[in-house]
Design a protein that fits this description.
The chain folds into 2 domains: 222 residues, no CATH class; 89 residues, no CATH class. Helix 1 crosses helix 3 and helix 5 runs parallel beside helix 6. It contains 12 helices and 10 strands. Helix content is 39%, strand content 14%. It is globular. The two termini are 21 Å apart. Strand 2 and strand 3 form a beta hairpin. It is of the alpha/beta class.
Length: 337
């Protein structure tokens, strides 16, 4: 992939704390080089991470009052109808009922063009390890439902590429996979690394085949060599808390960057740490991290393929803290570029 994203471009991760979709979109559009549509969990339970992309999942049940979601096989023909309607290039919409921020965003950017634009889906590993059947078993461990989930998410990604292409030739779709930081722990001993890799590869290929640029977001530790092998072109990591966990893989990162990949540095924290940081500290930290990586990877390669982001979404922060995060990102870009 050629250098289609300008060095030190800025973008964000999905969630914001707003209840007003238009207000959230206005903040994004006046802040970031690469605008993205906001997930708004404060608006509806349907905008929470797993539920937002579950629309169209066979056997899905949602109780908004109890804020629970599960899958219950009930002998209906939902699964057969899903298979009959699905094709290798299927596109399944995310409706306004599940994504008020997305549809407000599309209305606000009507007629506008951008150098790049960003959408996102919950990744298949996080999705299937976050959704249970009516017996309390994780969907991941049901081979058929795991594959159905992957098919559904790929179709949602294709649909986003299609609608966002109206506004940019360069449509980035992040595969949000926070659960990758827990793979290998005692809670997920039955999760096979090769299957994780297959699910990620299938999703990345679907995005690329649809004309998009696949990226991945993981806001903790992860098996970074596995993530790099997935075929994503943008790797977004928490550079504030976890830089050292990725920097040790300098050879893999060198190959990734020289092969056309980008590192999206989540250098501005969205944890409670945001209350105590300022631009001076973050600029110093970012420069130090970049210099460390440049000891192993050519400096020009590193610096030409940097994207600046928050460490994660800001959906759990206040609006005031979110504004601080976004302002710090703008100041970082100004200082680094």
């Amino acid at each position: 992939m050629s250098n289609i994203i300008k060095p030190f471009s800025t973008t964000g991760i999905g969630s914001l704390p707003h209840k007003d979709p238009r207000e959230a979109c206005e903040l994004i559009l006046r802040t970031f080089d690469i605008p993205f549509w906001p997930q708004l969990p404060a608006v509806s339970f349907k905008e929470s991470m797993t539920v937002q992309y579950s629309e169209g999942m066979p056997y899905l049940r949602i109780d908004e009052n109890e804020q629970t979601v599960w899958v219950m096989r009930d002998g209906s023909d939902e699964l057969e109808r899903f298979y009959e309607s699905y094709s290798d290039n299927a596109k399944i919409a995310v409706s306004e009922d599940y994504a008020a921020g997305l549809h407000a965003f599309l209305k606000m950017i009507k007629g506008r063009r951008f150098d790049a634009i960003k959408g996102h889906i919950t990744g298949p590993v996080t999705f299937t390890l976050g959704l249970k059947d009516h017996y309390g078993r994780l969907v991941y461990f049901d081979e058929e439902l795991r594959e159905i989930s992957s098919m559904l998410l790929r179709a949602k990604a294709r649909w986003q590429v299609d609608i966002l292409k109206q506004h940019s030739e360069n449509v980035i779709i992040f595969i949000d996979e926070p659960i990758l930081s827990a793979i290998g722990s005692s809670s997920y001993l039955g999760v096979d690394g090769e299957e994780v890799l297959r699910l990620l590869k299938d999703t990345a290929v679907a995005i690329e085949d649809a004309g998009g640029i696949p990226g991945i977001h993981c806001c903790g530790r992860a098996d970074w060599p596995l993530v790099i092998k997935s075929g994503v072109r943008i790797l977004n990591f928490d550079a504030f808390e976890y830089f050292d966990t990725i920097a040790i893989y300098n050879e893999e990162l060198k190959d990734f960057l020289q092969g056309g990949g980008y590192l999206a540095w989540g250098i501005v924290p969205t944890s409670d740490a945001i209350r105590g940081v300022d631009d001076g500290r973050l600029i110093s930290l970012m420069r130090d991290h970049v210099d460390k990586l440049c000891r192993h990877v050519p400096s020009e390669t590193v610096r030409s393929r940097i994207i600046i982001t928050p460490s994660c979404g800001t959906g759990s922060r206040s609006i005031e803290e979110t504004i601080k995060v976004f302002q710090l990102i703008m100041r970082l870009k100004e200082a680094m570029s």
